[in-house]
Amino acid sequence: MLDRDQLETFAVVIEQQSFEKAATALSITRGAVSQRIKALEESLSTVLVLRDRPVSPTPAGEVLLRHVKALRVMEGAALQALAPQPKLHAPIPLSIAVNADSLATWFPEVLKELLLSQLVALEVVADDQDHTSQLLSRGEVIGCISTSAKAADGFAAECLGAMEYRCYATPQFAASAFPDGLTVPSVLTAPAVLFNRKDSLHDEFLKSRFGFSIDRYSKHFLPSPVALLEGVAMGAGYGLIPSTQAQALMDSGRLLDLCPNHSVMVDLYWHHWELEPPLAHDVTALIVKVAHRELVSRAVDAPVVLVAGSGDSASRLRHVSAAVAGNNSKADCNSH
């Protein structure tokens, strides 16, 4: 039987990324923290913590951290179920990783139900959809939205559907920068608006458009979906934006689609523990339900471009096809 105090101390050390900060959080001495971690490692005959700055878990530590987080969720759910008035209990802490574009478009429907339930104390970690899976594997979150269709050992991946991106600019910017349309010479001189340096979507769009890679073009980096949209809408450049996010500006004439017959479909998946506590299972069911209602169902015969993963992310599929306007039916996962 693992010692619960040792387990909790280990989790706090990893969360705080410091033995000193963990001691403060737990109201014990730095020496007591070290003793508990050492005793836990000895009981398991393995090193759990890399004593660097910042502190991080070893692969074995990542497994144990997921175990501690599952224990927290199950214990919190049991206390709520056993209490005469469950809402008097403190909400159960849950952390999930969500890509910024989902947060700006369809995910608020999920947040509304989770936050208003008053059953969870939710932490949403925002990161690029190609990098969120790293947070899950390290045990920092109980689930994440990713572009990878393949789940790691011990995890499951649920198909959510696809987000449609289109290339937008203001009519004035398009007339000035692209008088002959979106051509290679014009792309080399016109500034593009990207999310951040991790964002490879624009590169992939240009490659699919012209048949070869283009990387030496001017770029603005605005690491917020709202800021990116506003940057394009003010005429600072052109960029790829979720079509649902840009629709109102399209309807008002402030934006136009530079490539009406060319869109980028990005498949999204919800990765979670394979064996998850009931509350985490309910979160998974909610996310899948909302996503199937809000995201685009990818056509089975859509052309597929396979793009190698970046960093530690698994490979992901980018689907470049004609627009699927107004299609919000349930996601089709059978083609994988």
Detailed description of the structure:
The chain has 336 residues and is α+β, with helices and mostly antiparallel strands. Among the domains are: 4-60, Arc Repressor Mutant, subunit A (Orthogonal Bundle); 65-160 and 265-294, D-Maltodextrin-Binding Protein, domain 2. 41% of the residues lie in helices and 21% in strands. The strands form three sheets. Strands 3, 4, 5, 6, 9, 10, 11, 12 and 13 form a nine-stranded mixed sheet that branches. β1 and β2 (56-57) form a beta hairpin. α1 crosses α2 (19-26), α1 packs across α3 (30-44) and α2 packs across α3. It starts with a helix and ends in a 15-residue tail after the last strand. Mean pLDDT is 84; it is low at 299-330.
Mean pLDDT reading: 84
Low-confidence stretches: 299-330
CATH fold category name of the domain at 65-160 and 265-294: D-Maltodextrin-Binding Protein, domain 2
Class derived from helix and strand content: alpha+beta
Number of E strands: 13
Kindly, what is the distance between the CA atoms of the first and last residues, rounded to a whole number of angstroms? 41 Å
Overall geometry? elongated
- CATH homologous superfamily label of the domain at 65-160 and 265-294: Periplasmic binding protein-like II
Instruction: Provide a count of the helices.
Output: 13
CATH architecture of the domain at 65-160 and 265-294: 3-Layer(aba) Sandwich
Q: Summarize the main sheet.
A: 9 strands, mixed
Share of helix, binned:
40-55%
Portion of residues in beta strands equals: 15-25%
Task: Please state the CA-atom Rg, rounded to the nearest Å.
Answer: 23 Å
The top level CATH class name of the domain at 65-160 and 265-294: Alpha Beta
| Helix-strand sequence | HHHEEHEHHEHEEHHEHEHEHEEHEE
